[in-house]
Amino acid sequence: MLRSLYDWTMRLAASRNALAALATVAFIESSVFPIPPDILLIPMVLAAREKAWRYAAVATLASVTGGFLGYAVGYYLFAALGRPILEFYGAMARYDAMQQAYAHWGAWIIVLKGMTPIPYKIVTIASGAFHFPLLAFGVASLVSRAMRFFLVAALLYIFGEPVRVFIEKRLTLVTSAFVILLVGGFVAVAYL
Q: What pTM was computed for the model?
């Protein structure tokens, strides 16, 4: 099962639809979708390392653009849509503390949390809900998402083939580590 999913992802990564799929996932992950764009970015760079920077740029721009949608959800639709999303991720338990932290460290929170496995949509929705300045949100999002996606692309560009061999030999381990990081991001939201 894992092998067939991996093979399907690698075929998608090498297909002519890969860039559109990456942009779509990066866009919707920033506001509602639970799976990070890394799930496509990594195999895409491994399939065509010479396009690593292009893929990172697309993921960054689509993620930041989607972040503005998440911001709008928090700003305009918090009660109807933003709150249920934050509740789903366990972030409402710390809502007041998050609001106070944003008042003091807003841009730094966006930069730091946007680079981590913590679901980015929490940052985008919270930024809108707290009426964080839109320009500062956009700049901090651009910095954070660029740092994340270009770092992934750079590491895979430099160490690509050994990484690919490692993943293919230890697919279950890599998948388990990815799931642990993903779940760890959700858990961190609930307790940090």
A: 0.80
